Amino acid sequence: MNFEIINPGTTKELLGAVNKLQKEKFRFGAGCTDLLMELKKKPEDGLTIINLSQVKDSSFSGIKKSAKGMRLGAMFTAHKIVVNEEIKNAFNVLHESAHNLASTQIRQVATVGGNLCTASPSGDIACALVALDATCEMLSTTGKRREINIKEFFIGVRTTAIGKNEVLYGIAVPANEKKTKTIHSNFIKIGTRRSMECSVVSLAYHIQVNEEGVIIKAGVSIGASAPTVRFAEEACDFLIGKKFKAISQKEKEEFAEKVLSYASPITDIRATSWYRKEVLFNISKSIFE
Predict the structure, then answer these.
(1) How many domains does the chain have?
(2) What is the pLDDT of residue 32?
(3) Does any domain span residue 230?
(4) Smaller CB count within 10 Å for the chain: N or C?
(5) Is 85 exposed, middle or buried (0-12, 13-18, 19+ CB in 10 A)?
(6) Contact between 106 and 31 (Cβ < 8 Å)
(7) Backbone angles phi, psi at 202, to 5 degrees
(8) Residue 219 structural domain
(9) Cβ burial 87-109 (10 Å sphere, 16+ → b, else e)
(10) What are the start-end ranges of the H helices in the chain?
């Protein structure tokens, strides 16, 4: 395996490197937890890797809170998500997804941007951010910024909407509704073993309830159940206006069926399609139990 590594120190240098390589083969590397495994399986000669870990830019690697919500730089690590109390309190689904990601050592270097740009159907952090209705911000070689909803970011298996002249720069998570009194927010990951495993099925949910106990906003997404992480829009709409603690058994099953309608799982070495559907149906019902 023969490749070159470029180490830009600033965002300007990064964009310059991307611009220079437009007619060449190049990949971005941050924590490289997925990239190195991929290149080991399928080496690419003549490849240039742009090492993002050396870029000094707080907008690229930090976190910023505002009245509109919270913005994470694409280089923000899974470890930083886990130890951030504000994220845990406001968006527990994101906290749990990062906490469930691989091992302590890998979480130290694995980044939000890497988890999204790998575009794996079983991406943990990606699944949580879809449930949170996040927005992806790209930066092009011209310095122009472009924003798209995360549901439009994943366009196929390991394929994203990022242009060759762009880099994922940040992810914005909208603030919870002002009338929210209680938040039911979690990430459920089912694997064939307890740690260091990709999901067999995953479910992310972020449900906001007002003072009267009525659901006013809901975000539900599924992972490892389709070619991409999917937002279960009809299931979310079904919950609006209902009292969270008064959901009947029939309504739980109807909700689970609506979640399941977004799944088109495959049979592979880790699980059958039938098993994935059964598990997804059951964990969808368990949200209210």
Answers:
(1) 1
(2) 75
(3) yes
(4) C
(5) exposed
(6) yes
(7) -140, 150
(8) 182-286
(9) bbebbbbbbbbbbbbbeeebbee
(10) 11-20, 35-41, 58-61, 78-83, 85-90, 92-99, 104-109, 112-117, 124-131, 150-153, 233-239, 249-260, 273-286
153 within a domain of the structure (yes/no):
no
Give which of 187, 152, 181 is closest to 243, Cα–Cα: 181
Rounded Cα–Cα distance for residues 87 and 89 (Å): 6
CA-CA-CA-CA dihedral for 249, 251, 255, 257, to nearest 10: 70
Quick one: pLDDT at residue 192?
Answer: 61
Cβ atoms of 197 and 183 within 8 Å: the answer is no
Nearest partner of 153 among 134, 140, 131, 125, judged by Cα:
134
DSSP state letter for 246 = G
- Please say whether the beta carbons of 154 and 229 come within 8 A: yes
CATH number at residue 222: 3.30.390.50
The tens place of each residue's pLDDT in the chain, 289 residues long, gives 578 899 999 999 999 999 999 999 999 998 777 777 777 778 788 899 999 999 999 999 999 999 999 999 999 999 999 999 999 999 999 999 999 998 899 899 999 999 999 999 999 999 999 999 999 999 999 999 999 999 999 999 999 999 999 999 999 999 999 999 999 999 999 986 555 557 899 999 999 999 999 999 999 999 999 999 999 999 999 999 999 999 999 999 999 999 999 999 999 988 999 999 999 999 999 999 8
232 occurs within a structural domain: yes
Domain presence at residue 145? no
Strands (E), 95-228: 135-140, 145-149, 154-156, 159-160, 166-174, 182-190, 201-209, 215-223
Residue 236 in tokens: 């979310």
